[in-house]
């Protein structure tokens, strides 16, 4: 009887799952595509996920691209670019990162060239906006791949992120000045816009170029939903960037505590947006050369330390206001890191009692959520203040 019940339950579950599987993975991804291309893509899917065989999967991915070209699919349609994106994803899945980068760079280059040659004729039909959105997303993903620890090409990562950010901002400014033209479609905004800003900000932070990171964190914060854990993270990151910039009253020396690194790098946003065959449109003219950095940060830098304290306190207040049902570990990390930042700033101003209190608060928060790195960081701060007092 037990065996019968188990088999019946398994069979029932399988019968319920099969229609869902067929609809989600066999039908939906290929709606509107020519059948010869779909046939090759389904084979590639089979050898990539069902019966893993990378060589066979690669073979059918290539055949799908060749078939799309043979039957005359628009090379700049969302469907065709989507096939190329899947090709890049395949390489990344099997750890062939340079090949994935090459595919993405090829897509980006082709999209930019198309806009330079034909973009002015396709403003009102939205094609210019849509194609340059792909270029921006590909550039962002290239930056993420170059930044992986086992590739660690930080200069190339910065170049890719810089191009994406400059393209985003240039098009945003153009629309603000000229106004959005009828039919050209909306530009990249919201979470996707902020994520690109944040990724470049982290690249600058890791190189100690805090004056460039701070305005980017602020840009990301302006499009981040308020009263969220990630907003608290961005506020703390902004406080960190500001606290590392010199002012007239405090100057960090080699004996001062090391800067607190920003927490929670944004996760790769490439897969979700780029897997969509109808993405949010985007555009901006620019060549593939590395753009110049901004001449001056956009934040007023009269007293960066005071601003850092204000942003750290705002990060704590924001993290504490987030409703329980919306709280994530980002809230606790933001609180802990912001408290540590306040302790570090007090320590640099020779206010050791205040610094010790903030470090202890940071340790309590980290211990409460089991964040070992936060506990270690706070204990090191407490130890420094004790050594000064002795």
UniProtKB/TrEMBL annotation:
Lineage top rank: taxon: Eukaryota
InterPro entries xref list: Mrg3-like, TPR-like_helical_dom_sf, TPR_rpt
GO biological process: protein quality control for misfolded or incompletely synthesized proteins
Molecular function, one GO term: misfolded protein binding
Record Gene3D superfamilies: Tetratricopeptide repeat domain (1.25.40.10)
Bias (Polar residues): 243-257, 277-286
GO cellular component, one term: i-AAA complex
Positions of region (Disordered): 243-300
Name of the protein in its database record: TPR-like protein
Organism field: Rhizodiscina lignyota
């Amino acid at each position: 009887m037990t065996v019968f019940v188990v088999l019946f339950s398994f069979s029932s579950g399988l019968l319920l799952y099969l229609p869902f599987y067929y609809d989600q993975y066999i039908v939906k991804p290929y709606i509107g595509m020519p059948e010869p291309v779909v046939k090759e893509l389904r084979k590639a899917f089979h050898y990539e996920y069902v019966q893993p065989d990378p060589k066979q999967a690669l073979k059918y991915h290539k055949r799908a691209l060749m078939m799309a070209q043979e039957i005359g699919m628009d090379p700049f349609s969302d469907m065709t670019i989507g096939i190329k994106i899947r090709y890049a994803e395949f390489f990344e899945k099997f750890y062939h990162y340079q090949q994935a980068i090459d595919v993405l760079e090829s897509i980006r280059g082709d999209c930019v060239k198309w806009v330079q040659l034909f973009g002015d004729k396709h403003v009102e039909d939205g094609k210019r906006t849509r194609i340059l959105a792909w270029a921006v997303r590909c550039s962002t993903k290239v930056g993420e791949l170059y930044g992986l620890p086992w590739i660690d090409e930080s200069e190339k990562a910065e170049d890719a992120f810089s191009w994406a950010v400059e393209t985003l901002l240039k098009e945003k400014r153009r629309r603000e000045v000229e106004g959005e033209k009828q039919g050209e479609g909306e530009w990249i905004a919201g979470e996707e816009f902020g994520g690109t800003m944040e990724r470049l900000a982290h690249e600058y932070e890791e190189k100690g170029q805090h004056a460039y990171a701070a305005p980017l964190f602020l840009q990301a914060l302006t499009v981040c939903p308020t009263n969220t854990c990630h907003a608290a993270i961005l506020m703390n990151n902004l406080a960190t960037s500001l606290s590392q910039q010199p002012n007239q009253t405090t100057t960090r020396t080699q004996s001062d505590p090391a800067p607190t690194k920003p927490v929670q790098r944004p996760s790769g946003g490439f897969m979700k947006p780029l897997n969509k065959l109808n993405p949010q449109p985007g555009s901006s003219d620019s060549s593939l050369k590395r753009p110049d950095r901004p001449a001056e940060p956009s934040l007023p830098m009269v007293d960066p330390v005071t601003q850092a304290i204000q942003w750290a306190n705002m990060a704590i207040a924001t993290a504490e206001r987030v409703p329980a049902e919306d709280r994530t570990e980002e809230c606790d990390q933001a609180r802990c890191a912001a408290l540590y930042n306040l302790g570090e700033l007090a320590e640099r101003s020779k206010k050791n009692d205040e610094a010790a209190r903030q470090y202890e608060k940071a340790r309590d928060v980290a211990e409460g959520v089991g964040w070992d790195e936060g506990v270690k960081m706070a204990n090191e701060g407490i130890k420094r203040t004790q050594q000064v007092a002795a």
